[in-house]
Input
Amino acid sequence: MEIKKAIFEKSSPNIENCPKGNLFEIAFIGRSNVGKSSILNMLLNKKSIAKVSKTPGKTKLINYFLINDSIYFVDLPGYGYAKLSKQNKFVISKITKSYFTDREQLKQIFLLIDVRHEIQKSDYSFMVFLKSLNKDFIIIFTKTDKIKDFLIEDLCKNYLQSIKNLYSKNIYFKSSSKSKNGKEEILNYIEKTIN
Output
């Protein structure tokens, strides 16, 4: 898939405020600070179309990026950051839950996982939530540039083994926003998904 045009369209505080119409949506979600915005910037070949923050939990809205005037990439609020106030945690949970429950335009979910960590309770709980809705998802392992190359494959396989009751696919992606590793593979997969 070649990205010829990518523009930030809007930030939505709730489902009612999301774009109208029938364009397919490709959702990106993961724990706070997993690197969603960095991966989006890499895929779209733009340095800061998606705002990157070192403060976990910064994204509190559903952010829409219009790609080639034909599909949306959707950056969703992260989950699992305990230091947010209860009110903020609730808002994020509500937005995320309603998006995955009610958004008919949703075509593909990419769940981003930091390759450096073993299964986290929040990630596992979120996978259980997606499964309860019969929502399929594909895992993108992020931050592979922070691990020695020869360790990456084993870390990915060990992680997948720990969630085999929730994720039986053979497909997953290894990515780094720094080295741009995984970019072409992810975009090619998206192209197959929407065609």
